[in-house]
Amino acid sequence: MSWESLLLMMPYITVVLLMVIGLFTVLFKKNLIKIIMGITIMQNGANLFLVSLAYRSGEYAPIFTSAESTDMVMPTPHALTLTSIVIGLATTALMLSFTIMIKRHYGSINTEDVRRCKE
Amino acid sequence: MNFDIFVHSPAFILGIPLLFAFLTPLVNRLSEQLRNVVFGIGLVLTAFFVGLMSYQVLTEGSWLYVFGANQPEPQNLLSYFYFRITFVADSFAVLATITISITAVAAGIYSYGFMKDETGLNKFYTLFLLTLAGVNGMVLTGDLFNLFVWFEVTSVASCALVAFRNYRGRSVEAALKYMVLSTVGGLLVLFSIGLMYGQYGVLNYALLTQSISGTFIDKLALGLLVVIFAMKASSAPMHMWAPDAYSEAPGSVTPFIAITSLGSLFVLFRLLFGVIGVNVDPSVSGTLLIILGVLSMIVGVTMALVQTDLKRLIAYLSVSQVGYMMMAVGVGLATLNSADYQNFGTLAMKGGLFHMINDGVYKALLFLSAVAVVHVTDIRSLNKLGGLAHDMPYTTVFFLIGALSIAGIPPLSGFSSKLLIYQSVYLYSPVLAIVALVVSIITLAVVGKAFFNAFLGPDQGLAEKKVPSSMLFGMGLLTVVVIIFTLFPNLIVSEIVSPAVKALVGVMP
Amino acid sequence: MKYEMSRVVRTVTDILVVPIIIFGIYLIIHGHLTPGGGFQGGAVIASSTALLVIAYGSFGKHKKDLSSLESLGLTLFILLALIGMGSTMFYNYISGTGGLFGGTLPSLGINPGYINTGGTITLMNLMVGLEVSAALSLIIWMMSKRSGMMEPEETISPSEEVEK
């Protein structure tokens, strides 16, 4: 494998790393804030995946520039990424608000203390 | 330019709940009565447009609604597909939206009486309508990315609804659990959408169906999508969020949260039949669906046996009912490419889809009448309840109808769909039919226990207040629908369910 | 006074808030031509709220107004989409009609980008910007109040668990 092809693979390797780190955090950490951080890391991984899919070597960003329209990349993945960032903001804010409320009710944000539903 | 309101009805089904959702907080600053009226108008108008769309689809056939185009039905489909957002208005979407809107109207009317004492109700109504728009969008949409957007809208709005009574710690805990699962699920959906886009460069269902070839990456994406939507549909190995969320949500939206999981099941079937599944050897994915279904049936009903909390008991029963639909449709999918499909596969599909619309209605009735019991007595434990038939006769009748229907006792509507499932599944594998029958019998035992414990026996004077009339009206509406399904099962199957099966299995418009 | 930061921080905040808001408005208005748009501009405007909250530790009593502004933005957004229903929902009905928003492009291809060519997209960006700036300010405000960064308006007692 040559250096150049490895360089082109870098985004995807990073995506896999981010997804695995995020999933690991969500599954094995006990602190609610850390779980939410893990979800955010996974979000960034998914967004990076979409953006790297859109990359075409030697082509331009699909905005109002002086490039020929045939030299521009398809803007669909960028639209998807923007939407997913907006949704990610909403979900993160909601989960953090839940955590604040849980802290008020239970006095702890450790998942081992937050299990009254099971009783 | 002639304006055809029938053709535009899919856009109104989406637009009206969104508009009224954002209008309610504004109106709330003027007056609270007006806000309630606006909420009611929003619900009824949405149901009205669902009716218009159903009429048009069932008489004229299905069509594709393209957002932002200069005419709703495009002449040259391919040139629109790459950039536009499309909605598919076919008989399957009709089945789904009818189920959703019946439950939504009943739960909305029920909310008037049930939520009267809570504060911040304008947010409650907003979230309610947003969830309605989200579920409708999820079942109507025609491309994968829109599916992700509506999936997340539904998740965020329904999680906020679960946590609405945030003065209870358990509600917030259940909501956070549901939210974490939904968000991780949503990210994996996004990831699998990326996998599909990276290979084929399209996101539209119809174009994907043409281009998918069944590579390893397709199978990976399909596996992720099936697992996530089965999780949202509260199927067995991933059902742990469901009992918590169902029992800790404010009572009047519990059936509505259940409807969001039913909506995910509709989407799962559409993905398996219309988009990806048929290109990836249907017998494998059908067998997977059957396994998940049998597991849900058994796990749900055995967990329901040991519950003493009335709402949790019904929540576990609803998990087991999801199993019936997955099993029946799984049999249809597994036999799709063989001659058996004509012999019993279509019958299984009809049974499964008829059970979905049935289940959406009687489960909502059961939930709402159980919530009425909790509302009146402030007691959830079945060991402490008793003798309520003396004080709440109407609720007793409603609960009895829902309970007999969920247990599949003839002649109620649950029986007719379960009979179709037994008949067809027996021909595929007798073991499955026996499992389904046994689960049905245990369901009868469970609801029988709940009914005897809560309603029969000497009057203990537990009822502290009357059931408000709006709550009775909501339950009465659902009872009327259950009775209609009971009296005319043939009509429902031939007019609504059979076209839905055809639309699901056949090619997309 | 406990929640306020030093005079230097407050003065710099006062100076910075204005350019931040102007930059946000720039991003919103140019949303259809360059990277940016309603959400991004709204988020930039909301960051000025964060700055104010950190520096002053209070944000006045505008919770209801912010909430209404958010709903107003979204209602107008959906209304703008529904007006297009003569053709389809979200149809760009003022594209190419001239005027402040619907100016026509001379030709497709290389051009510097004209600000008045967005049609309904510009209007929708404005509405989304209104909504996002109000909503994010509200989120920042509520969260910092609940987590003790701000002067509490009402006393928050650890609530008694209601168990049924």
Brief write-up:
Chain B is mainly alpha-helical. Chain B has a domain of 229 residues. In chain B, 66% of the residues are buried.
Radius of gyration of chain A: 20 Å
**Spans of at least 5 consecutive residues with low confidence of chain A:** none
- Chain pair with largest interface: A-B, 34 and 36 residues
Helix content estimate of chain B: over 70%
Overall average residue pLDDT of chain A = 86
Strand order of the largest sheet of chain B: 1-2
Number of domains of chain A: 1
Structural notes for this entry:
The complex is a heterotrimer of chains A (119), B (509) and C (164). With 119 residues, chain A is mainly α. Chain A has a single domain, classed as Helix Hairpins, CATH 1.10.287.3510. Helix content of chain A is 67%, strand content 0%. Chain A is elongated, with a radius of gyration of 20 Å. The model of chain A has no long low-confidence stretch (mean pLDDT 86). With 509 residues, chain B is mainly α. Chain B has a domain at 281-509. The longest helix of chain B is centred in the C-terminal third of the chain and has 38 residues, at 340-377. In chain C, helix 1 runs antiparallel to helix 2 (38-56) and helix 3 (63-83) packs antiparallel against helix 4. With 164 residues, chain C is an all-alpha fold. The longest helix of chain C is centred in the C-terminal third of the chain and has 27 residues, at 120-146. Classes of the chains: A mainly alpha (119), B mainly alpha (509), C mainly alpha (164).
